[in-house]
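Practice record 12: protein with flavin-adenine dinucleotide.
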Amino acid sequence: MRDIAIIGGGLVGLCAALALQHPARRITIIEAGNFDPQPARGLAARSLALSFSSVQIFRALGLWQAIEAQAAPIRHIHVSARARWGVTRLHADDYRLDALGYVIENQALSDCLLQAVQASELIELQQNASFASIDQDALVNIGYRQQNRRRQLKVRLALVADGAQSQARQALGIDHRRIDYGQSVVISNVEVDMPQADTAYERFTAQGPLAMLPLGGRRYACVWTLQPDRAAEVCGLDDVGFAAALQDSFGFRLGLIEAVSARFSLPLQRTSAVALQAGRCLLIGNAANALHPVAGQSFNLALRDVAGLYELLCDQSLAELDAGGIAPLAEKYERQRIAEQRQVIRYGDGLVSMFSNELPLLDQARAAALGLLDLLPALKAQAALSGMGMTFGGNRLLRGHL
Ligand SMILES: Cc1cc2nc3c(=O)[nH]c(=O)nc-3n(C[C@H](O)[C@H](O)[C@H](O)COP(=O)(O)OP(=O)(O)OC[C@H]3O[C@@H](n4cnc5c(N)ncnc54)[C@H](O)[C@@H]3O)c2cc1C
C-alpha cells in the first residue's frame, strides 16, 4: 500500500509530491499524459510568474538552485495607467529582497520538477494513466486505466490535482462554480529593442490590464486583457499588425516591439470548487481554484496550499492519522486554506472590475489611486506583500525550510 496518491501530475501535482514525501512517505502520481521531451519553444513558450512565497517553498524543498538557473528575476515593478499620470513603482531593494518574484517558462519548471521526482525513491510516477474511479472506506481506493489495463491503488490520503475540469472532483460529488468575467486574455511573447533590466510592467488600459513580464534578454511575456471581440480581432492580425496594436496600448517604455510569437486567447474565467475535501480526499491546484491569469496567482496560491498541508501533516504519521485523524485534518486544511483563497480571489476580482471599466470617472480615480499608492509606503508595502504571497502568516515551508 502507498501512503498518498496524487491524481494529476501537472505542476501542482509534482510539487505536492516533492513536498509531502517528507518524511519518508510513499507517494504515487497518476498522470494521464506523459513527460516525453518537448522541443524547445523559444519565443512561443508559455511562462509563469513565481511569487516570493513560491521561491521560499522551492528553497525549502532544495529545488530553488535548479529553478533559479532557468528563471528571470523581477526586481522592479512599474504600474501605470495608459494616458494618465499616476504611476507606482515597487523595488526589491526597498524590502531588502533580491527579487520581488521570478518568471520561468512552464516547460523549464516542469523539467526541474520532473527531474527531482525521478530522483526520489519515495515517489512513483505512473504516466499514461487515466483516473477512472474513486471510493472510500477505511482507505481510498482509486481505479485508473493504463495501457488498456484497469489498475487499482489503495492509499491513506488522496490529493485531487487533475486540473480545472477535474474528473476526480466530479467523481467525489464536489460541485464547482464558474465565473465568467466577460473578457478575454491574449497571450504572446515579444522581443523589444530597449529591455529594462529585471523590470515587470503592469499597465491599465481602457479595456483592461496589460502585463509585460521579463523573460531575460530582450524577451517579454505579454498578458493582455481585452473585450472578447477586440481580443479576437488582435489575434487575427498578422505579426506587424499585432505588434503595432500592442505598441499602441503599451507605449514605448521598452522601445520598439520588434518580434512577436503566435498569439492565443482565453476567456477570462475562474473555476472554484465549493469544497476542498471529501473524506480522505483533498482538492489542490486548479482542481480547487483555477483563477484568471491576470493576477498571476493560481500556481503560487496552490503552492501555498501545499505548504499549508505539509504543515498539518508534518507532525503526524499517516498511521496516526488512520486512527480517526484524517477527518479533522481535512476539515482543518479546508478551514485554513479557504480564508486565504478567498482573499486572493477578491484581490483578482477587484483588479478585473476596478481596472477593466471604461467609465471616465473611474479612469481618473484609478490614476489618482496609483499616484497616491506611490506616496504611501505602508500601503505600498501591503500591496507588495500581497503580490509576494506573504500576507497570511507563516509555516515551515514559507520560512524556507522543511
Ligand atoms: C495564460 C496563463 C498564465 C498563467 N500565469 C500564471 C502566473 O503567472 N502565476 C501563477 O501562479 N499562475 C499562473 N497561471 C496558472 C497556472 O498555470 C496554473 O495554476 C497551474 O498550471 C495549474 O496546475 P495544476 O497542476 O493544478 O493543473 P493542470 O496544469 O491543469 O494539470 C492537471 C494535470 O492532471 C492531468 N489529468 C487531467 N485529467 C486526468 C485524469 N483523468 N487522470 C490523470 N491525470 C489527469 C493532466 O494531464 C495534467 O497534467 C497561468 C495560467 C494561464 C492559463
